[in-house]
Description:
single chain; mainly alpha; about 70% helix; rod-shaped
Amino acid sequence: xxxxxxxxxxxxxxxxxxxxxxxx
Length: 24
């Protein structure tokens, strides 16, 4: 169960990184 908790923060960064900012 502890493993899932540790993945929570990692999972949030995954989708954020995939969304590139519209700069060009």
